[in-house]
Design a protein that fits this description.
The structure is a single chain. The protein has four helices and eight strands, in the order E-H-H-E-E-E-E-H-E-H-E-E. The protein is an alpha+beta fold. A hairpin with a 5-residue loop joins strand 2 and strand 3.
């Protein structure tokens, strides 16, 4: 837990209901839900679902993501579906979004990831908070699919 009372850690099975309820209440795509922690390993990815909680143990942010660890490249990604669904960080404030992104950045450094790709939802206020934080952290925005989604890339 940091000085502002935010704790960020990887999702555990006992958090699934809280995680899914938070996603449901914040217009998250189906690619954001906890079921993906069991699907992604079958696709050859390591799920990294980060959950942020406050001092009262209330969920205040989530970041569904995964690592693709292949011979020749190592990629950190936000979860996606069909290349158009969004599952970037969703948080109650810019500070929480930043904590989630920093925790993901640390995980990527631990696994020696060379590129991070995060897709955020331009229509969700909470994702647009995350998008501005991504830019502050040095991510370069790139628009795909005729502005239907926004991708932020970060070379480590």
């Amino acid at each position: 837990m940091n000085s502002s009372g935010i704790s960020v850690r990887e999702l555990k099975a006992e958090d699934f209901c809280e995680w899914d309820k938070y996603c449901e209440n914040n217009l998250a795509s189906y690619a954001s839900y906890s079921i993906w922690t069991t699907i992604l390993p079958n696709l050859g990815c390591k799920p990294v679902f980060l959950i942020a909680k406050d001092r009262d143990n209330k969920v205040i942010g989530v970041f569904p993501s995964a690592l693709i660890l292949r011979r020749g490249y190592r990629l950190g990604i936000s979860t996606w579906a069909d290349g158009r669904m969004y599952a970037g960080p969703i948080a109650d404030s810019p500070e929480i979004a930043q904590e989630l992104l920093l925790a993901f950045d640390e995980t990527c450094k631990k696994y020696r990831i060379s590129l991070i790709r995060i897709i955020v939802n331009p229509w969700s206020r909470k994702c647009s908070i995350a998008e501005s934080k991504l830019q502050e952290l040095g991510y370069k925005p790139k628009t795909l699919y005729d502005s239907l989604n926004t991708t932020a890339l970060y070379w480590i």
